[in-house]
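Technical note accompanying the year-one report. For the benefit of new consortium partners, we illustrate the data format agreed upon in the data management plan: each record pairs a sequence with a structure-token string. No post-processing was applied to the example shown here.
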Amino acid sequence: MSEAEKARKSEDSPRPVEMSTLPTVNSEAKEPTRPTKPPLHPAFYVISWIAMSSGVILFNKWVLDTKNFRFPIILTTWHLAFASLMTQILARTTSLLDSRKTVKMTGRVYLRAIVPIGFFFSLSLICGNKAYLYLSVAFIQMLKATTPVAVLLATWSLGVAPPNFKTLGNVSFIVIGVILASFGEIMFDLTGFIYQVTGVMFEATRLVMIQMILSSPDFKMDPLVSLYYYAPVCAVMNAIVSVFTELPTFQLDDIYRVGIITLIANAMVAFLLNVSLVFLIGKTSSLVLTLCGVLKDILLVAASMIIWGTPVSGLQFFGYSIALGGLLYYKLGSEQLKQYASSAGRSWNEFGTNKPATRKLVIVGASVFTVFLLLCGLAPTYAPGSVKASSEYLKSLLGGAAAAAAPKRKGT
């Protein structure tokens, strides 16, 4: 075929129709990311835990003492039964308890570990709530400062660790401070003192048993998962004890006097304490946890002085200050304390340079708070009539709010 014929044939052949191309999506282009919701500031979790932890203690004291609900074991049983129900609901509707799936829990482990640990947990709760009937919240918090000492002694007694006299010397400041605070207690009651000290011993034994039996990573549990396993068995144990101790004298009038809504709210606050603790542990450091505990104890002492007019002597202030200082030294150590103090000093200087007015405001607020604590502590001694009147007025306000929320009985 000649070149001319090839050219003519190519001209006669039909040309492909050009299709209009539509714009296509660039597969390599990334989709615009939606703005993520900013996480909550750690201060939110700190404030929530302090509020819940303080709220449970003050709420229990108010129900047991002020509202004259003299059944601490029944109240503890109600808290545990409510917690058992709530943990079961959360396990089926949320992801808060998903970590329980990593716990290798069997029937044998439950009977050999959870039940005996739950036994001491029940005893610590019973003795702790019994103490509210006899002692002030302020003095109870001072006695609770001895918990690390009790844990140390239980560790040695059960053979978990050999005795260390250097460590014993470190915790001796806690013991000395609490002894001074006990001698300075104006409303000392031996029965309440025995209940509280016994409760601290049971709690220390429980913590050491957890270290002995459930120290394996296969049994690592956060506070909410622990409540999921411990609450049912503790509720049963407390219920059995209440049958022989408090139930024979218990009447429905006792519930109506406090109010059903009040009891539900009391149990809800106790349960939310464990929820807030889970988030606090996950969002903060061990230093923050230690400082939060110290701050909570100080605020509870102040709240006890304000709400119930609890007299706190100068010797108690001095002894409790020594105990808190010893507690910080024991938990953090001297080297860490020096590092934290140095870092805090630099941050405080930078804060004063950047915001001098705010720094002055903080100093004035701290000074006013300190003077307020001192005046509240001395007021019941020098002006008992005024303090009692103010305390009764505050109690009447709280009691009126609870009475309005409680359902009225028929025929009354």
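Partners are asked to follow this layout when depositing records. Residues 401-412 have pLDDT under 50 and may be disordered.
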